[in-house]
Amino acid sequence: MSTKDNLSDSLKKIQSIIAWFEDQQEVDVEKGLEKVKEGAALIKTSRKRLLEIENEFEVVKKDLEKE
Amino acid sequence: MSLLSDLLHFREEAARREGVESFKVFSKATIDAIAFARPKNKEDLISIKGIKEAKYKKYGAAVLALVAAHAIGEKAGEEEVEEEIENTVLSVNDFLEAINTELSGLAARVRGEVTDVNIWQNRVVFFSLKDKDVESVVKCSMSYQHYLLSGTAFSVGTEVIAEGYPKIYKPRGELSFQVMTVELFGEGALKKAYDELYKKLEQAGAFDPGQKKPLPEYPERIALITSLDGAAIGDFQMNIGRFGIKIDLYPSGVEGSRAIHELMAAIRAVKKRAYEYDVLVIVRGGGSLESLAAFNNEALVDLVRTLPLPVLAGIGHEKDVTLTALVADRMESTPTACALHLTSQWEVARESIYTFSEKLPRLLENALSERKEVLGFAHQYFFRALAHLKETVTQCEQQFFFWLQSYQHHMQSEQEKLQVSASRLLTFFQEGVGEVQLALKNFSGVLSQVDPNRVLALGYSILRRNGKILRDTKGVARGDILHIRLGQGSLTASVQDVD
User: How far apart (Å, rounded) are the C-alpha atoms in residues B99 and B70?
Assistant: First the structure.
């Protein structure tokens, strides 16, 4: 559950960082650098989660009650 | 003893050994089926419902041996048995018991028309089934629970298929058909039941979009209910992509009379572990109203409605919308569509990340190059201003020195002027002094001329009377004292005579 939340949050944060850059008239270079660093870290972790990972498939055996 | 009783006995023993309920070894229906089919080999045995590889491994050999023993025994002991029957005397109860044991192996699906219905104390449903064509009737009984579970409300005249086994109700010595499940027979009846339940659910707000729970954006743990056979499972697996999702499959029949029981059991099992999953997916392929009947069962629909987990249904294809699909939180037309929907956000995320990772480094670059430009302008401006300042300072300097110089010139010329005036003044003064000296000299000559002492030196004298100088004899009398100043020295005389 935590991974799912983080992924969703991470993607939203990255989008907001990009939007921040696009909104700025004059970019505060120091702030910009900070944001790029943050964005890069978020992209790294998100990318990891989105790699091609095999699914885990399991058949749950359940004995049905019968009379 | 009959094969059936031997099998039942075997089952009891096995259950006791393993410390489990007997139905966990084999269900009653399976025992009946074995007794009926008399399998001779593994293939025969496995084809019986309720026996798969696992059960075969465990009990297969023993069961086949039992059956074989009976086959031999029967052949050999037929006469023996006949003799035995002739000699043995049974009580009525034992007799009926024995008959019931045999009858329990005759499970059947019977179609007939309901002729009377009696629900007794909400525990048992008694009804009769009549053959449509030939005059024959069988009395049926069914537990109320099973009746509800069947989701088939029937009344007099309804044509149904009842599945169960015959049994003699001992207190009355009457044959009764013990019914386990009932289904409606015929598309018409099914459609009618569907429409009625649809209306009921609609009125209860079961289809209200406000009731639907949102499916998670990035599902990671999925509970899946579908048949292990059939195309649905394959379609689903093929399209779910590879996102490291955990999928737990709860296998269940999806059609036939057992389906409703298996589906309910599967959903209940998922419900117990609901907190472990992000979503429940129920899929199966398309089919007729009859084959999809389980998914229009009221009990199943209610169970799905009240699940604390979001439910995604891909049951049937577009034209057969089951009520279960309608009350699910989301409905797709096929198992493939379900899989695709679940991973759509994952796909989008993957693409987005790719785009972001391309975009991000450029963002700062662009911002910096803009900054660079601005800085360039500022730089130029700054140096221009500096140069201008330098110029101004130089000008001031120059101005200052110019003034300084002109001041110096001015001072010099004034100095010269002053010197000229000074020398002129001196000359004038010197001339002046010369003149004065000359004048003084003249005066001194003049003075010496008029010096009384010179006159005195010539012999003249100054006479004074009473301090006053005498210029004439006026007022002078004889005997006046006169002071006489000579050129050298002075006398005092008195007057002798006046002329």
Answer: 18
Bridge partners for B314 per DSSP: B283
Chain A hits for B143, Cβ within 8 Å: none
Beta bridge partners of B181: B163
Show the tokens assigned to B218: 């990035």
A55–B180: do the CB atoms touch at under 8 Å? no
β-bridge partners, B118: B126
Question: Looking up tokens 């001779």, which residue turns up?
Answer: B40
**B219 contacts in chain A (CB < 8 Å):** 4
Grouping H, G, I as helix, E, B as strand and the rest as coil, residue A59 is strand
Q: Give the ipTM of the model, two decimals please.
A: 0.76
Q: What is the pLDDT along chain B (499 residues), one digit of tens a residue?
A: 678 888 888 888 888 888 888 888 888 888 888 888 888 888 888 888 888 888 888 888 888 888 888 877 666 666 666 666 667 788 999 899 889 888 888 889 999 999 888 988 889 999 999 998 888 999 999 998 888 888 777 788 888 999 999 999 989 899 999 998 888 887 777 888 889 999 999 999 999 999 899 999 889 899 999 998 888 888 998 899 888 899 999 999 888 778 888 999 999 999 999 999 999 999 998 888 878 888 998 889 999 999 999 999 998 766 668 999 999 999 998 899 999 999 988 888 888 888 888 888 887 777 777 777 878 888 888 889 999 999 999 999 999 999 999 999 999 999 999 999 999 999 999 999 999 999 999 998 888 888 888 888 888 899 998 889 988 888 889 999 999 999 889 999 999 988 7
Contact B169, B126 (CB under 8 A): no
Supply the Cα-derived Rg of chain A in whole angstroms: 21
**DSSP letter at A8?**
H
> Hey, of A35, A63, A64, which one would you mutate to test binding to chain B, going by the most B CBs within 10 A of its CB?
A64
pTM above 0.90, yes or no: no
CA distance B250 to B22: 23
CB < 8 Å from A in window 231-270 of B: 237, 240, 242-251, 261-262, 265-266, 269
Subunit contact A64:B261, Cβ cutoff 8 A:
yes
Integer Cα distance of B60 and B58 in angstroms = 6
Nearest-Cα residue of chain A relative to residue B275: A1
| Chain A (6-35) residues lying within 8 Å, Cβ to Cβ, of chain B | 7-8, 11, 14-15, 17-18, 21-22, 24, 26-27, 29, 32-33
Count CA within 13 A, CB hemisphere, residue B189: 20
How far is B450 from A30, CA to CA, in rounded Å?
Answer: 117
